[in-house]
Amino acid sequence: MGNSKNKVKSSIGDAIFDVFNVVLMILLIIVVLYPILNVIAISLSNAEHVARADITIFPKGFNMDAYQYILKDEQVWRGYANSIVYALASAVCTLLFTSMTAYPLTRRDFIGKKFLTVFLTITMFFGGGMIPTYLLMMNMKLINNPLVIIIPGCVSAYNVFVFRTFFRNIPEELGESAKIDGANEFTVLFRIILPTSRALLATFGLFAIVGMWNNWFGPMIYFKNPNFYPVQNILREYLYVIDTANLQQRAGSGAGNFNPTFIQQVSPKGVRMAIVVVTMFPIMCIYPFFQKYFTKGMLVGSVKG
Q1: Are 275 and 76 in contact (CB under 8 A)?
Q2: CA dihedral defined by 107, 108, 110, 111, rounded to 10 degrees?
């Protein structure tokens, strides 16, 4: 009888907890989705309704004028191409150099293991600062060079320690058996360790891509030539600089052959929202494909310290 009462209380408590979770999740979904839907709706509405600010989550006076303007701007396409190159190069360099740094730390016979561990740990707490880093890049002749935003950040101490922890969970017998067959350390790393670490590589590859895609501060201070700007810097220019006069100026200086009447019909706010959508679209597309690796990689890499 007592067990039956406890079971009823437990069932009621579970039901209340489930209802609370469902309500909380619905509120979180609304908080996250509403700004995105509002931005998309504004980008697809005509200038009159945008000026009235009466748009919620549905477009009013549906048209694609803002996207037509954006997609004819050569700077947007150039920024897109630069961002893709920087993101892919950053992901490849991050995974390659981080793996090659972390793997020796898992070898018992590596002489410099303790020194390298202490050295990397220090860099987690102390940084050089922005001005010394800028002077270092200048002395290395990397200013106005795309490598300046790819190479310096491709190895971080945190990533190395997570990689080291993940590699330690792989049975040593796999590497030892390969060495008996004549494999060296590079063969063990690239033919055995890395193929069994796909979840880890997918997770940190995604981190590198997202981090580089959203990076605008580094390019702003290191690039003097706007042709090297990634799409985030083009987005920043649209968000903070663009107005009706700028729209007409850009249209007349390489943003495409536009009818003056068309430019007058385009809302600066609609154009700003359109470039926000264009900028975030690629990242929103790749997340679903990496989600399973993302969760698995984060959990496995944090099992041991």
Answers
A1: yes
A2: 160
Mean pLDDT rounded to a whole number for the chain: 83
Cα dist from 18 to 12, 23, 24, 26, whole Å: 10, 9, 10, 12
Which of 44-48, 154-158, 186-190, 296-300 is predicted least confidently?
Answer: 296-300
> Quick check: 211 and 94 in contact, CB under 8 A?
no
Indicate the SS3 state at residue 154.
coil
Total residue length of the chain: 305
198 to each of 191, 202, 221, how far by Cα in Å? 12, 6, 35
Query: pLDDT for 60-72, tens place per residue?
Result: 888 888 888 888 8
**In sequence order, which residues have a C-beta less than 8 Å from that of residue 279 and are 6 or more positions away?**
231, 232, 235
- Report the C-alpha gap between 37 and 161 in whole angstroms: 39
Q: 């003097």: which residue's tokens?
A: 224
**What phi, psi does 258 have (nearest 5°)?**
-110, 145
